[in-house]
């Protein structure tokens, strides 16, 4: 039996920021001067794809295809095989191979890394042939958002339980009403998988209720650079059985059931996806991954599920000034949502799962103060995606409703079986029409009057703790009320990240500038508890302007992912203030 080894990444080529900026549209031939190895990188606006410059047939070198007028294909010098690098499919001979892709990542200095996953297809280790499934043996029940309850023989597994409370401070709320027995379902689970640290997947309000009954329930997470449960101690939730597992290795649950966690190619430091296999039948859940496993995924799985909705970002709704008119934002959102739909439809067509389910996008900005976001942050319709998939393939699609159950054995045998998908009873409440804002806003509001903020020196203390500096960016931070007007008595200050100073006026040197208005309850809660700025940005709790209109990846990546794992020591700070 082939032994599984942990999946790792190897840097094959590193492009400097200048080299990355000078990449031309279309095909770029690249060489690692140290190793002498050659690579091809295809650029289409912001989309990048890369591979080794080596034909899959007999290892020949690719060169420019003079017969290609679209700038997408290369020709092998050995036998004239042709590869379309925009799709990584061989077009001569047609229908032969797909080229193995490399992962393209941006580094902290805006350079590019070409990475190779090893092994690239770890699920192929210890292969198992599918066995017949009895009716009812494998059942998948949708609870809400990204939460699925899987019955796999005599075991139960739950994905990403967000079933109560908000996500991202107070910006996201559940669109669907979870089944009334959701807590009992969680307590019955043999294991839980949590894909990443974002609070619509790692929901501490949900886990607090679960921990009250089953603190020792096994919860599995991937071995990400920033631990998924980095904030567990600070949260006060008493969970005692968190299991961190390596990427790309089968985790055996029983003789029929195993699962494997894979990293994301774009955000390997925090995002993961999962393959669950029962009696040889694979269930692929790519969750929120942008390029799960660097774009290499198993084909013809029994069931695939992925996000679809879009709208999980403060951009562009929370931006103003310059090009950010309402008309521009509306057109951008429309275009981006369509791109996402087309990408998901293309991915499903390429992978050819037997069944596809769009999920992990069922949230709503329901707090009254976020009415503008709710009206402008238009999300994709799962039925529109499923209709697009049906036009291009024979894949069966399932738009889930809370409490609906898919019987995998029945659906694989006969997708038209009326008992293959059991909908919730007639009259079941599908959409939430009220949310309990009070308890969660009370927690946020408690930070406003915290003793820390009586001392203006908290600003230096906080940003010193955050550890981001030596970067030419000046940010003006303004604490605001609900309507993003300056909060009476609130702080309004500048941070110069070049030398981590706090000037009264903008410096005279040339510098990029951002103005960030943040609701006072959320920004103070984030500062006090050392939380990541996703609560502000993804949670729509800011309004931003920038000059020039440039995305400062290093700044945002630091405050959204790389802040210290322990919060500021405010106790010591207050002692020194006395």
Automatic annotation (TrEMBL):
InterPro entries: CMP-Neu5Ac_hydroxylase_Rieske, Cnh, RibonucZ/Hydroxyglut_hydro, Rieske_2Fe-2S, Rieske_2Fe-2S_sf. PROSITE patterns: RIESKE. Residues 15-113 form the Rieske domain. It catalyses: CMP-N-acetyl-beta-neuraminate + 2 Fe(II)-[cytochrome b5] + O2 + 2 H(+) = CMP-N-glycoloyl-beta-neuraminate + 2 Fe(III)-[cytochrome b5] + H2O. Pathway: Amino-sugar metabolism; N-acetylneuraminate metabolism. Belongs to the CMP-Neu5Ac hydroxylase family. This is Cytidine monophosphate-N-acetylneuraminic acid hydroxylase. It comes from Equus przewalskii (Przewalski's horse). The gene is LOC103541420.
